[in-house]
Fold this protein.
Amino acid sequence: MKIGLFFGSFNPVHVGHLIIGQAVLNETDLEQVWLVVTPQNPFKQKKNLLGEYDRYRMVELATEENPRMQPSNVEFMLPKPSYTIDTLSHLAETMPSYEFSLIMGEDNLAHFHKWKNYEAILKYYRIFCYPRLGSEDNGHWERYPQVQRFELPYLDISATRIRRLVAEEKDVRYMVPAGAYEYLVRERFYAD
């Protein structure tokens, strides 16, 4: 089975994440997309980061109606901080009949050379990359010609913006998938 791994904090998951997941399913030969909830991104601070199990639950609720998209908590059991190559290696070892690929935004190409063992990722895994608003190319596509670009409408939705709106007591119901939105409101996440 061909699986696309879409890593993120999902703090919180929002409709943009699901649109990206569906777009890559529509435009590639991937059979499923797993939204991998990252407990701790080595490039981001933990400030304002909701607990990993609550973020996982929101992804679970957001994807429950689409059998081709599902949450993954694989990184919860791995050493922290989470490095993509370690997760990919773990999955390849424990699920050898699956073919894993990486899904990421083009803003990651700017610092991809700083990722742990990025050469191994390029060598052994396919990478599908989507455009990001505000990202400048600066030759990144030429530097990584094996990265496959897929088209996507630009979306100006971010988890940072959603958290800010919730803190300001604004409604984010159409930015966050219904089940995840109800959970977010019920638990009063990001309200303080």
